[in-house]
C-alpha cells in the first residue's frame, strides 16, 4: 500500500512542478485533501459494517422465529387464533422498534460523517444572500414529516435490499466528491444516502410516502458555480432590458449599454446581485412548498412552479424600474441601504401575490371546465 509521502510526491511529479518552486500553500492544500480523503473511508467503516450486520441479522431472525414457532406447535398442539394475532402484532411492533433504533443509530453516524459538509453548508446559508432561504428548508421538511406522521407511521416497515446498494453508491459518491473538491456532489450524496436509508430500513411504501419532504431538501443545496454563473448573466441582460424599457415608457430618457443604464443624472449598473437569481431561487422554493400545502392537484402544482420563473423575472425588472425612478429624482443613495432592502422585500411579496392570483385563476378555470352537477 503506498504511503502518504509517496502519494504526495507522485502528485507533484504528475503536475510536473519541481519541489523547490512549490509554496507552502500547495503542500498544505494537497496534504490536507489527501488526509481528508483517507479519513473518509475510516469514518464510513462503522456505517458499512453496521449495515451488513443488520442485514444479516434481519435474515436470521425470521428463520429463528419460524423454527421456534414450529417447535412450540409440536409440543403444545394447535394454537388459537387470538394467540396468532397477538404474536403477529408483537412481531410487527418489535420490527418497528428495531427499525427506529436503526434509524437513530444510522442518523447519528451520518451526521458525524457529514459534519464538515453540513457546517460549510450552514456557513454558506449565513454568508451568501443568494441561499439564505436554505436555512428554512430543513425546518419546513421537519414540519411536514411531523404533521403527516399519522400517515406514514402506520405503513408496514419492510426492508429492501436495493436501499443498501443506494447507500453504498452515496458513500462512494461522497468519497469521489471530496477527492475532486466538488461541494455540490458531496452535498447531493447526503440526499441520496437518506433515500437509501429509508428504502433499506422501511421499504418502498414509506419512501414513497415521504418522497416530497426528502426531495424538497434539494432547495437547501446551492447550485454549482458553473450553473450559477450561466444563469446570472442572461438574467442580468433581461433585467437591464426590462428596466430600460420601463424607464423609457415612464418618460425618463435612458440609454442601455450591456448591463449599464445611463440616466440623465446618474448611471445604474445591473450587477450580479441585481440579476434576480436570489428572488428566483427563493420564490421557487416558496411556491413549491405552498403548492404542496394548499393544492392537491399535481398539474396545478407544476404550473405554479413553472409560472414562478417568469413572475420572478418580471418583478425583478419592475424593481429595477422603481430603483431607476427613485435614482432619477433622489440620486443614487437609494441604490443601497434600507431603501434597497425595502424594495427587494416589496417586490418579492408582489411576486408571491402574483402566484396566489395565478393559483386563483387556475381554480376558476378548473371549475369552468368541470362544472358541478346539480340534481333537481
**Hey, roughly how much beta strand do the residues contain?**
under 5%
Number of helices: 14
Largest sheet: 3 strands, antiparallel
Kindly report the spatial arrangement of strands forming the biggest sheet.
1-2-3
CA-atom Rg in angstroms: 29 Å
Taken from the alpha-carbon principal axes, the silhouette is globular
Q: What distance lies between the first and last C-alpha atoms, to the nearest angstrom? A: 86 Å
Identify low-pLDDT runs: 1-24, 59-82, 84-88
Oligomer: single chain
- Average pLDDT value? 77
Class per helix and strand makeup: mainly alpha
**Tally of DSSP β-strands:** 3
Number of structurally distinct domains:
2
- What portion of residues is helical? over 70%
One letter per element, helices H and strands E, the order comes to: HHHHHHHHHHHEEEHHH
